[in-house]
Amino acid sequence: MPDSPSESAIEPAIEPARPVDVPDTHRPHTRTAAPVRVCFVCTGNICRSPMAAAVLRRRLAEEGLAGRVAVESAGTDGWHAGDPADTRAAACLLAAGYDAGHTARRFEAEEFSRHDLVIALDTGHLRRLRALAPEAAHTDRIRLLRSFDPSPGAGRSPDVPDPYWGEAEAFAECLAMIEAAMPGLLARVRELLDGADGPDGAGRDGDLRR
């Protein structure tokens, strides 16, 4: 979704995607025993952040880590709260073999205390999240998704562009950027897991994040 409220009022007519049921560990606010929790944040929580969450869940399952990491997504704004993913985002995910089940929601300030990583999809979200953080220490948990992408950065935008106003190609490009950041993100998740499992693991409100 765009960050501008004026733009949001001109949304194109889109046939709602049929919600796909997903396991409870994919739903927001579900309590799990997972020692590490990750939340992706975009604007409306119907395009970029649910796509990123779906990709990370698949990668975690492939690595045998699905039960040890809880993955959520949310939006800086609540325009689409309760809606499924944008039909184009869902189609892109399904075509690539990912789960498209999703219910949009808004990110709330109190969530910082229960997430180890809060991952912004662009610099606008990064600023909003930093302003929302109730304590200065919470800002250490906020990262840009593309900061995990090891590819050359000269002249490269730090943002995953909003595909909302584009066609299927824009969603495919968005997915490719998300996938490129996954190896680096998984490495960070493993660091957090190692810290949580070790004798000096600090727990969710300790000093694991950097």
Descriptors:
disordered C terminus; four-stranded parallel β-sheet; disordered N terminus; 5 helices; Rossmann fold; alpha/beta; 32% helix
- The chain-level mean pLDDT equals 84
**Rg result:** 16 Å
Largest sheet: 4 strands, parallel
Q: Kindly, what is the distance between the CA atoms of the first and last residues, rounded to a whole number of angstroms?
A: 29 Å
Beta fraction: 5-15%
Q: What is the molecular shape? A: globular
N-to-C SSE series? HEHEHEHEH
Q: Which structural category fits the helices and strands?
A: alpha/beta
Number of helices: 5
Number of domains in the coordinates? 1
**What are the low-pLDDT stretches, counting only 5+ consecutive residues below 50?**
3-32, 199-210
CATH architectural name? 3-Layer(aba) Sandwich
Q: Class, according to the CATH hierarchy?
A: Alpha Beta
Across the major sheet, the strand order is: 2-1-3-4
Q: For this structure, what is the CATH homologous superfamily?
A: Response regulator
As a percent range, the share of helical residues equals 25-40%
